[in-house]
Design goal:
The protein is an all-alpha fold and 82 residues long. Helix content is 52%, strand content 0%. It is built from 1 helix and no strands.
Length: 82
């Protein structure tokens, strides 16, 4: 008898959550679409750097790599002996 009551409560909770989802989903959808739209408009309205054709700019200098200290060995040239 306790198992049937538990299953009934779980099913009723599922139906309640499903009802709330259908009730609030249009509001959540509208909120997220407006938020994405405003983010899209903000990224597209940034002032662009006007550059003439052929102008080269460097934003960031690459890091200088240090030579490896791993001495694997020297290359030895060899000849095949028969």
């Amino acid at each position: 008898m306790g198992l049937i009551i538990f299953l009934f409560k779980v099913y009723a909770g599922y139906l309640f959550i499903k009802f709330l989802g259908r009730l609030f989903s249009p509001f959540l959808f509208k909120y997220f679409t407006n938020k994405m739209k405003s983010n899209f408009n903000n990224t597209n309205n940034r002032p662009e750097d006007k550059k003439s054709e052929g102008e080269v700019t460097i934003d960031k200098m690459p890091k200088k790599t240090k030579p490896s200290k791993n001495n694997i060995g020297d290359y030895v040239d060899y000849e095949e002996v028969e």
